[in-house]
Specification:
Rossmann fold; 5 helices; 9 strands; disordered C terminus; binds guanosine-5'-triphosphate; binds magnesium ion
Amino acid sequence: MKTIEGKVVILGAQGVGKTMVICRYITKMFNRRISPTIGAAFYTCNINLERGKVKLQIWDTAGQERFRSMAPMYYRNANVALLVFDLTKHSSFNEIKSWVMELKRNVDKTMVLVLVGNKSDLVSQRTVDAEEASQYATSIGASYHETSAVCDDGGVESVFVAAAAGLYDLSEENHEHLNSLRINDSIRSILNSDDQPASPSSEDCLADRSIAHGIHEKPHMCC
Ligand SMILES: Nc1nc2c(ncn2[C@@H]2O[C@H](COP(=O)(O)OP(=O)(O)OP(=O)(O)O)[C@@H](O)[C@H]2O)c(=O)[nH]1
Ligand SMILES: [Mg+2]
């Protein structure tokens, strides 16, 4: 069975819930005490698909304007971009369009794009409807998911499964990615399929590293 290792970057405006979504996925909890990301934070998680195992190296970027210039460092060698906006802030949805244009300008390789509308629990404050977002996702070749880090009903997991599945497809489709995707093929299965959980699992949370211009900042509150 094949094991794929790839890089994921999480992009989106300040306060849309990028960190909450990844922390929700890894810890299965909602942590109100998370502060705005400084520079970027790094996480890893392993996801067992039926077809194989995928290890995601995830860079959660900071949405604050003062960190904007650092973003290329994280997206340039990424294989997947999670594009997160806030369903209650239409401006954050518009910002995704700028991110997509920037990625198209600066990244040569094919990237798996996953569009995420977060804060779906705030139903009465919603300003982006599902159809608008899903049409846009189709237009850029992305999958579309709605999530709530507060009361998750499976949306968060679907985001990371889509990222893992997209990476897997990428590894099978074309060879230009072989330098950036680490692939191990083993004759003896790395995971015995009988032992695999039916649903993906996450582990190895390394959220204690927040990096700003190479300076190690105070560890993150979550995980
Ligand atoms: N109601 C609701 N609030 C959320 C949700 N996700 C995040 N929040 C709140 O939104 C705020 C920002 O969340 P963060 O995860 O720090 O946002 P971020 O995108 O990482 O922000 P930066 O790191 O500054 O770019 C916090 O007050 C969270 O409690 C959600 O799904 N629903
Ligand atoms: Mg954050």
